[in-house]
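Second attempt. The first submission of DNA replication and repair protein RecF had a stray character pasted in from the spreadsheet, which I only caught after the job came back as garbage. Lesson logged: always re-copy from the clean sequence file. Corrected sequence (365 aa) follows.
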Amino acid sequence: MWLKKIALINFKNYEEGGLDLSPAVNAFTGDNGAGKTNLLDAVHYLSLCKSYFNPIDSQQIRNGADFFMLQGTFDKDGSEEVVACSLKRNQKKQFRRNKKEYQRLADHIGLFPLVMISPYDVSIIIEGSEERRRFIDNVISQTDIHYLDELITYNKNLTNRNALLKSIAETGRYDPELLAIFDEQLVTSGKRIFEKRRNFMETFLPVFHKHYRHLTEGAEEVDLIYDSPLLNEDFSVLLKKAAERDRILERTSTGIHKDDLLFAVNGMPMKKFGSQGQQKSFLIALKLAQYSFLQERKGYKPLLLLDDIFDKLDDKRTRKLMEMVSHDDFGQIFITDTSRERISSIFAAIGVELTIFEVEKGTVK
Ligand SMILES: Nc1ncnc2c1ncn2[C@@H]1O[C@H](COP(=O)(O)OP(=O)(O)OP(=O)(O)O)[C@@H](O)[C@H]1O
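This time the job returned cleanly.
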């Protein structure tokens, strides 16, 4: 699967533009703020119905315009699939595949799998556990069409249980049987998600370690551990034990919404003890493992988007990474860099052909 063409109208800093892409490595070069990352984001949008960087859809519309449109022509097993997205200000976004509009955007997720590696990914390491759960959920939902629905159900059940806890605190009326009913609903959806996350981590971990070792040639030891309250105890038992505490807190203090991933370098927490280059290498290995996982589950290659990838990596790791991703295991690649010379020489050194697009103030040559 690869993206043959993309057309943009009023998307971020692009007024109008279109590109014919290469099935191999596409590089976007240009100055800071030129619009390189915006092009990657347009590809992300077509694949996952949203921006990678900004959750507010209306902010993707070019300043001063009242709509944006994106169209991508994908090649899937030799046949063309056209994906189009448009958004008018103050209206619902429309998403079409081969001219047919989706009723549920979730039905599109996973058809054109994609992995983005960006400097913003550092939030997975330094921010709270929500970022890490978002990472796991993003990977699983691209391979499991029921997963997003299950998450929605869990979150709805969680909101209901929290509302009940609040009303118990406010009214002083506590009905243990009613709470047990809410618990049961939460347990059903929670256990399903837990099983999926645990199974995912089992497959994912060895692939992550393989990529990390390869990228860093064993320079340091890293760890990635899935942490969930449900690993130690049955969810319904956990909820019963927490009932008293939850009534005081007026919210549910245990469940898969507390899951986390623990990252370590040489036995110490990555967030505090990892250098910037080690953190970046860790994130790259995480994303390449995501790529391998998606490829294995889908049976075809996802798109790989590399934003500002050379920053903070030493020459050895940069070269190794480019060798890895240009190798046959990876399909179509999009990569941004401010320096045309740097990217040309890196790819020339490993003997890989590169199609370069020069980006300048929202136009592409
Ligand atoms: N809705 C919008 N309307 C107009 N311009 C926008 C919009 N959203 C973002 N931009 C502009 O897009 C530009 C940023 O583009 P982008 O992030 O693609 O740059 P870049 O080429 O990747 O730069 P860098 O090398 O600094 O990472 C900024 O100038 C920003 O103001």
